[in-house]
Design goal:
Blueprint: E1 6-12, H1 16-25, E2 32-35, E3 47-51, E4 54-57, E5 62-63, H2 70-77, E6 82-83, H3 100-121, H4 140-150, H5 160-165, E7 173-175, H6 179-187, E8 192-193, E9 198-202, E10 208-212, E11 215-224, H7 228-232, E12 237-239, H8 243-250, E13 254-255, E14 257-264, E15 274-276, E16 287-290, E17 297-303, H9 304-313, H10 317-330, H11 333-337, E18 338-343, E19 356-357, H12 366-371, E20 378-380, H13 393-410
Parallel strand pairs: 1-2, 1-11, 2-8, 9-12, 11-20
Antiparallel strand pairs: 3-4, 5-7, 6-7, 9-10, 10-11, 13-19, 14-17, 14-18, 15-16, 16-17
The structure holds flavin-adenine dinucleotide (FAD).
C-alpha cells in the first residue's frame, strides 16, 4: 500500500506488537496504517524454508506459556496446526555428552539458583542475578549459558526483580508451519506500508509529523513498537526529544540469541525431538535440538556474549562452531553428515539489533516508563513494554492491543 498523507493512527513496526495493535483498531472507525521498515511482517518472528524439507523459525519458535498465549487462539482461527510435544530442554538428553547423573546434578544446581533469585526478589531490592550463583559451584559457567538462552545475556546483566516478574507457565508448544508464518497470516488484510523506515516523529505541532524513508505523513496518534535498541541508539528520533524514553530503552537492552539450522544426512541415526548438549563446563556452548518435528536437521541455539562473538566472526561462523561442537559430542563421522543451511545474525539486523529485552540490574521499573503514553498522542508497545510476558511474541502482541486500547480510550478527549 502506498503511503497516505494523513491518518488517525500510525502504527510503527509490523512485528507481533504492531499487528496486535492494528487488529485492535480494525473496527474502530479510525483510519490507520502500519509503517514497516522491512519488506515483510513479523519482525523478530520469521519463518523460512531453510531447504525444501526443513522449516526454520529464524526468530521466535515456541508458544511460551501456551495456556495463556493469545497466539494459540489466533492459530486456531487461522487453521495453523499446533504441535504440543514438550521441549527437550531439561531432563531429556541424548548420547554420552551429558550423562544422566551429571545432568541431574546440573538441573538441581540450576533450580537452586532460580530459587535463590526468587527468594531474594521477595525483598523488593534489586541486584544482579550473578550474586546468587553459589560460589565455587562447578556448574556456574553453564548456568550462565542457560541465562544467555533465556535472557540473551549472562547473569551479571540480569535484574533479579525483572527476572522474577517474568511469568512462565512452563507449557511450551510449537507451530508446524512456523511462528513467523502465523504472524504473516495474521498480517494479511491489514493496511501496511513496507520498506517504510520511520526516521523522525515530530510532535511539536497540533498533528504529528512522521518522516519516513517513503516520505512524510501526519497523524493524530502513533503507536511505536520498534525494538528498544533502536530507540536507545536514535534510529528513530523524537522532536522534541524524549530523554525519559531513550533512557528507559537504554536500560532495557535487547540481549542476543541466535539460531542455526544444519541439514542432517542419515537422520534416523538420531532421535526426533532430542536435545544434545554436553557437560562442557563452559558458558561458550550451544544447545542443539535434534530433528525438530522429525525433520532431517539439527537446530542450534546460542546466546549472550558467545553469540555476539560468533556473529562478529562473520557469516557462517555459527554454523562452523556448531558442527565442531556436535562432532566433539558425537564423533568425526558427523562432520560429513552435517551441512549449514541458515543462521540468524540478529545483532547485525538493522531493524532489530538484538533478540529480546532484559532489564539491567536496578532498572526493572523502566518497562512501565517505556510503556507510558506521552501527551495522549504517542503510545508505546513491543515486547519490552510487557510487565510479565516481556521477551516473548505473545507479550509483544498483547502489548500492541493494550496500546490500541489506550488510543481508543483517549478518543473524544483529544481526537482532533
Ligand atoms: C532467536 C530468537 C528466538 C526467540 N524465541 C522466542 C520464542 O521461542 N518464543 C517467543 O515468544 N519469543 C521468542 N523470541 C522473541 C520474540 O520474537 C520477540 O519478543 C517478538 O517477536 C517481538 O515482537 P515486537 O513486535 O515487540 O518487535 P519486532 O518483532 O522486532 O517488531 C518491530 C518491527 O518494527 C520494525 N522496525 C524497526 N525499525 C523501524 C523503523 N525505523 N520504522 C518502521 N519499522 C521499523 C521491524 O522491522 C519490526 O518488524 C525470540 C527472538 C529471537 C530473536
Amino acid at each position: 500500500m502506498s503511503l497516505p498523507s494523513s491518518v488517525d493512527v500510525a502504527i510503527i513496526g509490523a512485528g507481533a506488537a504492531g499487528l496486535g495493535a492494528a487488529h485492535a483498531l480494525k473496527d474502530s472507525g479510525l483510519s490507520f496504517i502500519v509503517l514497516e521498515a522491512r519488506d515483510r511482517v513479523g519482525g523478530r518472528g520469521h519463518t523460512i524454508m531453510a531447504s525444501p524439507e526443513v522449516t526454520f523459525d529464524v526468530g521466535c519458535g515456541w508458544l511460551h506459556s501456551a495456556d495463556q498465549n493469545s497466539f494459540v487462539k489466533i492459530a486456531g482461527q487461522l487453521g495453523f496446526e499446533i504441535n504440543k510435544t514438550l521441549p527437550p530442554w531439561r531432563e531429556r538428553a541424548w548420547g554420552k555428552a551429558f550423562p544422566p547423573e551429571e545432568r541431574g546434578d546440573f538441573i538441581r544446581s540450576l533450580d537452586e539458583f532460580f530459587q535463590r533469585v526468587h527468594d531474594a526478589a521477595k525483598s523488593g531490592r534489586d541486584s544482579a542475578a550473578n550474586l546468587y550463583l553459589e560460589p565455587g559451584n562447578r556448574w556456574n559457567p553453564m548456568i550462565d549459558a542457560i541465562s544467555s538462552y533465556i535472557n540473551g545475556c549472562e547473569t551479571d546483566q540480569v535484574s533479579i526483580l525483572d527476572f522474577d516478574a517474568y511469568e512462565d507457565t512452563n507449557l511450551n508448544w510449537r507451530l508446524r508451519r512456523g511462528y513467523g508464518a502465523l504472524m504473516a497470516a495474521y498480517g494479511v488484510s491489514l493496511p501496511l506500508a513496507f520498506n517504510c523506515a520511520v526516521k523522525l516523529i515530530d510532535h511539536s505541532g497540533k498533528r504529528l509529523r512522521i518522516e519516513t524513508s517513503q516520505g512524510t505523513l501526519t497523524a493524530n496518534k502513533t503507536i511505536i513498537t520498534v525494538p528498544t535498541n533502536l530507540i536507545a541508539e536514535g534510529a528513530i528520533r523524537f522532536h522534541p526529544a524524549l530523554p525519559d524514553k531513550v533512557d528507559a530503552a537504554a536500560h532495557l537492552p535487547l540481549g542476543l540469541a541466535d539460531k542455526v539450522m544444519l541439514a542432517l544426512d542419515e537422520p534416523e541415526a538420531l532421535p526426533a525431538e532430542g536435545n544434545l548438549r554436553g557437560a562442557t563446563m563452559r558458558t561458550e556452548m550451544g544447545t542443539f535440538h535434534l530433528r525438530p518435528f522429525g525433520q532431517p536437521c539439527i537446530e542450534g541455539f546460542f546466546g549472550g556474549r558467545y553469540a555476539q562473538a560468533l556473529e562478529d566472526e562473520g557469516d557462517g561462523a555459527i554454523a562452523a562452531h556448531s558442527i565442531d561442537e556436535i562432532v566433539a559430542f558425537l564423533g568425526s563421522d558427523f562432520r560429513r553428515k552435517l551441512k549449514p543451511l541458515s543462521e540468524s545474525r540478529w545483532a547485525h539486523d538493522p531493524f532489530a539489533r538484538g533478540s529480546y529485552s532484559h532489564a539491567l540490574p536496578g532498572h526493572t521499573g523502566k518497562r512501565a516508563v517505556l510503556a507510558a503514553p506521552v501527551d495522549n498522542r504517542l503510545f508505546f508497545a513491543g515486547e519490552a513494554t510487557s510487565p510479565n510476558f516481556f521477551s516473548t511474541a505473545h507479550g509483544a502482541r498483547d502489548s500492541g492491543e493494550r496500546a490500541a486500547r489506550e488510543v481508543l480510550s483517549t478518543i473524544g478527549t483529544s481526537q482532533g
